[in-house]
Amino acid sequence: MSDANWESRCKRCGKCCHTKDGIACEHLRYIGAASSCDVYDKRHGHHRDISGRAVECLPMEDYMRIYGMPEGCGYR
C-alpha cells in the first residue's frame, strides 16, 4: 500500500497522536472532533508536550504496537 493510500485512512481524530510518555504534544490542535498537527511533515523527533517538557513524538506504528489501535481508528 502506498504512503498516500495509508495516510488517506487517517480520520485525524488525534487519539494516537501522543508523545512516548502518552501526553499530547504541543503541536496537536483540535477542530471539533478532528485534529491536526502544526508540524505534521516534521512531526517525528524532538518537540515539547502540552506542559512544555521536552519529548519525542511517538510514531503511529509504535503507538499501535504499545497501546493498540484506538476505537474508530481508520487504520483498523
Q: Total number of helical segments?
A: 2
The total count of strands amounts to 4
- Multimerization status: single chain
Mean pLDDT: 80
Question: Which shape, going by the Cα principal axes?
Answer: globular
**Beta-strand content bin:** 15-25%
Largest β sheet strand count, sense and barrel closure: 2 strands, antiparallel
Q: Gyration radius, to the nearest Å?
A: 12 Å
Strand order of the largest sheet: 1-2
Order of helices and strands: HEEEEH
C-alpha end-to-end distance: 14 Å
* Class computed from helices, strands and strand pairing: alpha+beta
**Number of separate structural domains:** 1
Low-confidence stretches: none
Approximate helicity band: 10-25%
General description of the model:
- The protein is an alpha+beta fold and 76 residues long.
- The chain has one domain.
- The chain is built from 2 helices and 4 strands, in the order H-E-E-E-E-H.
- The strands form 2 sheets. The protein has a two-stranded antiparallel ribbon with strand order 1-2.
- A hairpin with a 5-residue loop joins strand 3 and strand 4.
